[in-house]
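ESCALATION

Customer reports they have been waiting on this structure for their group meeting. Please prioritize. Original submission:
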Amino acid sequence: MKTYYREILFGIFVIAVIGNISIFISSMKLSTEIHSFEQKTFVLAQENIQLEKEMADSDSFLHAKEYQIKWGFERSTKPIYVSDLPMALNTKR
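Update from on-call: job pushed to the front of the queue and completed.
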């Protein structure tokens, strides 16, 4: 009877060891997948930041263009004299 229990315990031990090894191997595979997903997420985050910057820049250029038309700015700059400041006084020419 003792040998029967030893065989059963030895079988349970072998099954537990094989189960632990298979769980360890599958967790290693999952960790490499998680690492690759983290790298892809980091790249996407960097691209997102770049796109947000470009969008903000283009948006600010559009607003600058609207104000340029609204306030009558020209492509070439004119000298501004202290005695005549229509922008500072908010008056129209």
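Sent to customer with the following note: DSSP finds two helices and no strands in the chain.
Escalation resolved.
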